[in-house]
Amino acid sequence: MTKPMDKIGWRELEVGCVILEPGNASEYLTGSWRSQRPIVDEEKCIKCAQCWMYCPDAAIYQRDDEVYVANLDYCKGCGICADICPKDAIKMVEEE
Amino acid sequence: MRQGRVGIEISIAVAEAVGQCDVDCIAAYPITPQTHIVEHLSELVADGHLSAEFILVESEHSAMSVCCGTSAAGARTFTSTASQGLALMSEIVFIASAMRLPVVMALVNRSLSSPLSIWNDHSDVMMIRDCGWVQVFVENGQEAYDHVFWSFRVAEDRGVMLPTILNMDGFILSHVIEPIEFVDQKTVEKYLPQFRPIHTLHPDKPVTMGAFAMPELFTETKMAQEDALVQSKPACLKAWEEWKELTGREYKAVETYKTEGAKTLFITMGSMGETASVAVDEMRGAGQEVGLVKIRLWRPFPVEEFKKAVEGAQVLIVIDRALSFGFGGPVASELRSQLYSMADRPKVVDFIVGLAGRDVQPEAFIEMAKLAGEKVDSGRDDEYEIYGVRE
Q1: CB-nearest partner of B100 from A6, A15, A24
Q2: What is the secondary structure of B11-36 as a DSSP string?
Q3: Measuring CA to CA, which residue among B165, B228, B154, B221 is closest to residue B192?
Q4: Does pTM surpass 0.80?
Q5: What pLDDT digit, counting tens, does each position of B135-153 carry?
Q6: A67, B110, B134, B220 - which has most CB atoms within 10 Å?
Q7: Complex confidence, ipTM
């Protein structure tokens, strides 16, 4: 997006509101919706990747040290990862 | 291909016109009274007369969904439906216009259930009145045939890019055989250029269509859509002008018949204009100052043309073919609203007439003129009436 959404005038929209840069939804940081964030206990994590598979926003990624953590730009704090973790290694904590 | 003046069922003529427009795709589900149009198109495709994809779908919802997909891929696309079929496809009808996909749909007007009825009125189109499509009404077979070409021409205009509904009355038009003047293929080629979409679905240049909009942007998307429909009017008028140059047949956004000096005007949409004109002839013969105004272009609504057509009239008798329950006739309601700012506005008397194919003879118009006079004299002109209903 060249402009923030709340600055775009109606005359600037493409015919039919077509988006010419596919995948630009990634520019929209949905992490701002979050009220809780997942905290991973790195000692407990067995790198099974179930949190990565179940995350509905594809917001979990594997760090170079192989531990799975959430990308907080996109994590909406739904808690599915904490729920699915077989080792209870993920805790949801309130955002400040 | 047929040529010259042909005695033909109007549905078949409409299908032939769609074939002459060389459509790329037809997706439809059969429903009375639209069936003959899509049946004939499937024959044209099956017999090799028309090179197009005829996509059999399991519902009207799917029909319009397919139409959106094929139109987005750059295919000239046609469908047809009526009544319950339109109700089922209505979700996608609104999406087609917002996505600016120039699908053409013949809406063979039929009443909505219940009670179940297959016959004609305008309750189906009034249900989707606010769908954002260009909407036109025709009065007879020639107009129906001609407006297939007009609909594609307007819809695919690079400055319009909006889907278009061709309203034709079920049975009264769709199943009637009339003499219709066919145009030759050279005329069609002159009139209707190749479909050149602005954006298409293509793997070489991926785009996103039908995306999501946050509250910060949604209002702007609707303003853009509203502007597109309002700005389509010059293209509608130009498409009629060029049709006249090529065929000699003249159409206007608002048609008038014997309106000179008329104090009372009937207002009709669709085939009932023909019946009303017979009544007007008779009443004029008896010295009554009556005339007829026929609204052809329903959306975008031709405000200026309408106001000019009714200038000088004291009473408008609106023939509504649908009822907005708890309010009155939708056409009369809109016309009152348009006239409200006029200093010398005429009275608007609203009759709901001919629901679900109930026959309306010229005598009914003569009686409505009498009733309208009584309503105006007694100050009851703002009460709508379901004409001819039995106690």
Answers
A1: A15
A2: HHHHHHHHHHTT-SEEEE---TTTHH
A3: B154
A4: yes
A5: 999 999 999 999 999 999 9
A6: B110
A7: 0.89
